[in-house]
Amino acid sequence: MRYLFKTDYGQDIDLAKHDGHRFWYGLLLTALLLAPWWLGDYGLAQLSFILIYAIAGLGLMLLAGFTGQISIGHAAFLGVGAYTQAVFAAQGWPLPASMAVAAALSAAVGVVVGLPALRIKGVYLGIATLAFGFIVEEVLARWESVTGGNAGMSVGSADVFGWKADTDMSFYFICLACSVLATLGVLNLLRSPIGRAFIAIRDSEISAQSMGIRLAHYKTLAFALSAALAGIAGALYAHKIRFLSPDQFGFVQSVDLLLLVVIGGLGSVHGAFLGAAFLIAMPQLIAAGKDLLPAAVGQAPGLQAMVYGLVLVAFVLLEPMGLYGRWLKLRTWFELFPFYRRGMFKRQRSFQKSERLK
Amino acid sequence: MGVLQILIGGAAQGCIYGLIALGFVLIYKATETVSFAQGELMMLGAFAGLVLMTVLGFPFWLAVAGAVAAMLVLGMGLERLAIRPVLGQPAFSIVMLTIGIGYIARGAITMIPAVGTETHTLPVPYAAGVMQVGGLVLGLAQVVVIGVTAVLCALLYLMFRFSRIGIAMQAASQNQLAAYYMGIPVQRLNGLVWGLAAAMAAVAGLLLAPITFVHANMGFIGLKAFPAAVVGGFGSLPGAIVGGVLLGVVEALAGFYLPEGFKDVAAYVVVLAMLMVKPNGLFGEKLHKKV
Fold first, then answer.
1. CATH number at residue A222
2. What is the rounded average pLDDT of the residues B270-291?
3. What mean pLDDT, rounded, does chain A reach?
4. What is the pTM of this model?
5. Is residue A17 part of a domain?
6. Which of B99, B189, B215, B234 to mutate to test the interface with A (most CBs of A within 10 A)?
7. Structural domain for B158, as ranges
8. Is A282 at the interface with chain B, CB within 8 A?
9. Would you say B105 and B43 are in contact if contact means Cβ atoms under 8 Å apart?
């Protein structure tokens, strides 16, 4: 059991609360930096995908997990980022510049989507973002002069001021750098007044408003930042997958991103990474498990959708805090051994909070 | 005449949206949760009808009744097993839960060998029928859709207006706690509402089957029922049908007059415009929350 004695107000907002944090996150970062030497090529490619999805997940986490605004069309921002990157990379822009443009354009689109969010909330917002996602997908499919339409569009390798990131290893380092920066950025944001305003809005809009938080301003900001992160992820995604087509950014992708944040654990930065790892590892696990099952089940085409659905339902019903919540429980169990009680993380059942009280 | 024919075709399609949207609205009014699995329930209903008709060889009417009854039971079971335990948690959880249920339904159907991966036609007696009214040539399937929707709406209206259960449902949807104090078994009613919504979805699936086909991905049409529900005002039953028909007609007109591609997004453009202009929809009530 660790006791933290705070001797300084600065400790309240330190990113690393104690030496344990510094040690373990340092170790993690070292392991990731050395990954090309202990992981095979295939593993490295998968790890890059995890990092890319984690960045997009951080964006959605900021919006859904911390600001409480649901978005069922987040793949649209990913798509805007990816196509912007593809177009500018084809014109020979260096990666940092084109990525900045991709993020900025996604953020601008995010502001546009955020505007209705000022008037509507909850379910309506979900449907507005859903509708928006479909429209963007259709635009990507029909604007053939820029996006190549349904025939798709191929993307070259990333180019950082003349240095070509054309191997798995070099591109992995770009992904790693982006995801570390994005994580630090989000962590910093969350301990700043802006992040606190986001969380206040999530917990109660009316209380937040009466504390002087401008809802319109902060909701739009949340949408813009979230979309910008998705745009960065999209830019990396474009270079990673090398071939873009509109159906990669449809409803299924949006649901995958939601799956990521819910399974990772809504409202935790760790959750974005855990969820991304889960999302990437899942198809592999299913493929590995296929051969163990009887052929009638194992080879059926619907297996993957079925497993996704079951996992999602199981998490919502049994572990609403996601993988990160499971980890918290495990850690607390060890820390408090043998005094852990089952009820420590019990969620209070509230009566249905009506949104239409008169 | 051409325009009128397009309008009727659109209205028939819109009735399907409306029927699915009715399911959303019923559930939303009763439990303030949104079911993203409604389209998949519709798909399950269509498959249930298909299996009853082709595999078990039931006559048409019996198969329809059987499919609807099966979905009623399934809906009630779903509420009991999956929805009731998470009531009271954020709306987000339930949205994800129903998305998960949709995945499971789609996966489960696809896993059935020789049925799930194929595209089937539902052998209905009126499948290829054509009706001539004046100079109009109408597919019988479309006329049946519109007719059945009208009858269902009338039945629902009568139920909510005159039957004890309907009035109890109205009470529970206005204030669950107060209704509970008045001796209304709110939980059992919620189960019934889910059953009713699933049954409506099954009807929609059986009506849609002769127009398109029966396949595992037909549930995606449920995503167009959301805009219908929103346009009509999410908490309004007549609004759902009106919104559905409106969207169906707009889609049909967009398909005819606008370039290719607009038809698929017409519904979403309309709903975004509606949310900008009148977030509560055509028939929604404007309510303010007091602290």
1. 1.10.3470
2. 72
3. 86
4. 0.89
5. no
6. B99
7. 2-224
8. no
9. yes
